[in-house]
Amino acid sequence: MHKLIYILLFLASITVTSQSYSLEKVNEVTLDTDSFIAVDAFNALYHIKGDILYKTDVQNEYQFSALQLGALISVDVLNPLRITLFYESSNTAVILDNTLNEITRVNFSTIENFRNVSHVRTASDRRFWIFNTDLQQLEIFDWNTQKVLTQFPPMAHNATALMSNFNFAWVSTKDGVFYYNNYGSFIEKIESPESQLMSQDQGAFILYADKKLYYKPNDTAAVGVIETLDLSIKQLSLKGESLYIYSDKKLTAFRLKLAKQP
């Protein structure tokens, strides 16, 4: 595991500016887990095994479990000091600190004006992006006051995936990917196949659908197929110009690089 952390430190220094990419395999390690989550801004690795969250950095390993809440569906490490976990079966989000100690939790079934939620992601300080399945809409929720601050227009379909940073959110549905800002404004619709695997970093995003990888840099509206891999992708995570793919108990690190011009 610690060998992988040193690989991640190397990858963090890569910078590529082109909008046309191919993938170059950098390294591969065995990772026997249920779900690979991501590599955070401090190059710590997160994964889930048996609904227990593990965090490994160069020096330490931490873990967190709340098995009474059911299956751990998602973990968002956008802010490594305020990590967001979501348990869909109990309609509950949990916030952890950087050593995986619990800060607080929110049960969306017991708050005033309760709502059923399918996705929870980190927004700005003390806020979530959530997808309300009762109204089929994206919302910004203040977990400190337990109030909805912003409601977005209802959508034709429920979300299959949600990703975000502090200022923007991307919602994948059967109709494509919808891009919003934190003021409640719709920015654009990105035509793409329906996907349940998405990852973003600094406004660029990648998604996996129909056994193809689709990539959108942060400085263009164009979405292109970057490469077809001979892998059954289980999870993926984008970090700068580094892409991590988990498949068949292997975590593979790829470098996004300039595609050769014909």
Properties at a glance:
about 260 residues, mainly beta, Methylamine Dehydrogenase, Chain H, four-stranded antiparallel β-sheet, globular
What does this structure look like?
The chain is mostly beta strands and 262 residues long. The protein has a domain at 108-233: YVTN repeat-like/Quinoprotein amine dehydrogenase (Methylamine Dehydrogenase, Chain H, 7 Propeller). It is built from one helix and 24 strands. A four-stranded antiparallel beta sheet has the order 1-24-23-22. A hairpin with a 4-residue loop joins strand 10 (117-122) and strand 11 (127-132). The radius of gyration is 18 Å and the shape is globular. The model is unreliable at 5-19 (pLDDT under 50). Keywords: Signal. Residues 1-22 form the signal peptide.
